[in-house]
Amino acid sequence: MDNKFVYIGVGSNIEPENNILTALKILQNYVIIADISPVFITSPIGGNQKQPDFMNCVIKTELKETFAPLEFKFNILRPIEIHLKRIRTEDKYMPRTIDLDILLFKDEIIENSNIKIPDPDIFNRDFLFAGLLYLEPNITVYPQNKSLISLVPNYQIDKLTINFKFTEKLWKEFLINEYRPSC
What we know:
Layout: E1 6-12, H1 16-27, E2 31-36, E3 40-42, E4 54-63, H2 69-83, E5 99-105, E6 110-111, E7 116-117, H3 126-135, H4 148-151, E8 161-162, H5 164-174
Antiparallel strand pairs: 1-4, 1-5, 2-4, 3-4, 3-8, 6-7
């Protein structure tokens, strides 16, 4: 399969609607946003369970210019996180203004200390799996090497909560040519 798309996991639990919207607007300088999954509301994983819920989605993008995966992560995504005041500490479960993670980068498979593509969390976080499933149900993702749709019974995606109002706002803002009917 010749995949030209980069799929990015987007999440926030500090002013999430504002920070996700701002991150996507900045990201448009570097990518064409081809599609956006529904926005899922999820409880925090690990760490302090008293923090606010997260809003998460997956975006399907096409790069406007050529970037290597590490270059895209550290020269594009990380600076956007820094601009939105993302603070990184040893506590990887702390609240955050924005989290931008490469889930899939074209057809690349990379595993080193700086990056893992495909992101293993696709298969560990129901909201990432569901977001990618929404965008590409028939895609085959390493290392499972089965279509996502065939893996649905392994996940509890029916238990996920969708923020329909914010999803519709993102679709109207970023998917002008493919605007979907109201949720």
